[in-house]
Amino acid sequence: MTIRYLKETEDYGFLDDEVPYRDGDPESIWKHCLNAIDLSLSRRSERGLPLILGGDWNDGMNAVGTGGHGESVWVAQFLCAILPDIVYLARRRGEEDVAARYEEARRALADAVNTHAGAPMEDGTSGPYAMTARPLATRSASMGRYSSTPRYGP
Hints:
Glycosyltransferase, two-stranded antiparallel ribbon, 4 helices, 4 strands, about 10% strand, disordered C terminus
């Protein structure tokens, strides 16, 4: 929602607004976003896919990750979709270290999805759930905005 809000309003100062955590001190919306992403990235399986854990939104999948073993291809794809926008924002804010970290995380996630979630098809290409390491978002120079365009295959 934060990215969508920024694309609609271009109110980048919004990221510096401070909001308290439910059980802690206030921090900028930007830091809230980074902390949420970092938490997801820190909880990955041996294969590099994000862990589902417990409390999944899909009740049928709720118990899959309670033992710390359930993997979520959807969360990996979601992270791959948002990370290019976060990289753009980090660079806009002069935080090159954050941008570089998230570019590498996106590459690793895309590789994990391609390796472990996309079954090879008869022609040797990846199946429908595979993603490439190419960015999912491309910048429209005339609009100064990003549009998500999934790109599958090599």
